[in-house]
Specification:
- The structure is a homodimer.
- In chain A, 43% of the residues lie in helices and 24% in strands.
- The first copy, chain A, is an alpha+beta fold.
- Chain A folds into 2 domains: 68 residues, Arc Repressor Mutant, subunit A (Orthogonal Bundle); 58 residues, Dna Ligase, domain 1 (2-Layer Sandwich).
- Chain A contains 5 helices and 6 strands.
- Chain A starts with a helix and ends with a helix.
- In chain A, strands 1-3-2 form a 3-stranded antiparallel β-sheet.
- Chains A and B meet through helix 4 and strand 6 of A and helix 4 and strand 6 of B.
- Strand 6 of chain A pairs antiparallel with strand 6 of chain B.
- The complex binds zinc ion (4 copies).
- The site of one zinc ion has 5 residues of chain B, from strand 6.
- The site of one zinc ion has 7 residues of chain A, from helix 5.
- The structure holds a DNA duplex.
- Chains A, B: Homodimer.
Amino acid sequence: MSTRRETVRQALTESSGFRSAQDLYADLRSEGSKIGLTTVYRALQALSDSGEVDVLRTDDGEAVYRACITDSHHHHLVCRGCGKAVEIEGPMVERWADSVGTQHGFTDITHTVEVFGTCADCAAAKG
Amino acid sequence: MSTRRETVRQALTESSGFRSAQDLYADLRSEGSKIGLTTVYRALQALSDSGEVDVLRTDDGEAVYRACITDSHHHHLVCRGCGKAVEIEGPMVERWADSVGTQHGFTDITHTVEVFGTCADCAAAKG
DNA sequence: GCGGATAACGAAAACGGTTGTCAAAATCCG
DNA sequence: CGGATTTTGACAACCGTTTTCGTTATCCGC
Ligand SMILES: [Zn+2]
Ligand SMILES: [Zn+2]
Ligand SMILES: [Zn+2]
Ligand SMILES: [Zn+2]
């Protein structure tokens, strides 16, 4: 119910890419909000616990979050330049991951799959 | 040629799973080595820069390293319990990642794919 | 509305993994 | 054997994140 959690969710939703807690904090403050960094972290934690947002780790270990449209299992195609993300599906990848796991005697199999690239906009801006 | 870098490489090689810098440091110290934590970090950085070891991030952002046998592109099936890892390949996943990226107008496409599970040993120990 | 319990909030401190600093020790070279 | 160069490791700084704790807002029975 918290207003602040709603605020954070909306800030995330307005972005098309993955954003860090500190990014969102900076955005909200620059819009005049008096929200605290702790609250942003708490909201993101709650949202990711409830599965409402996706979280992944950048190469340098920072957590970044995204409010995805679909709530079923999916992966992301993420722009290395601007963070913009596209939700993607790959049924054969799901099957492959499960089968390669069971083939080696593993159980409770999960997987992480992320595809990275440079989006058309960023490529144009750089070219 | 540094002896210390060799020491770290060997400590990694003796393990079948992904290990953190602090893990390796603790191991080496307990074996009587007088190596410093900074040096372990430096060695791992150098080894991963040169592509001799693979690195990935745990859920909580910690970097873990592994000395893989093959030096060609591959992925890992990692035990959630003990960190033991198996090198796996999935040509169809490689193709899928590239094609889904180009389909959305992205270039310079790369990907991360990791499969997690509980290995037979850990399942037996827990059951 | 009022008053007290309860939950949310935010500033600041603590935390943990990682990196930077710098002087001491080891190695190299002439 | 010097002196230059590189490697090393104790320690401090860093940075993202979590914890702490006193304050503030929200609920709810009256
Ligand atoms: Zn882009
Ligand atoms: Zn999947
Ligand atoms: Zn295991
Ligand atoms: Zn691959």
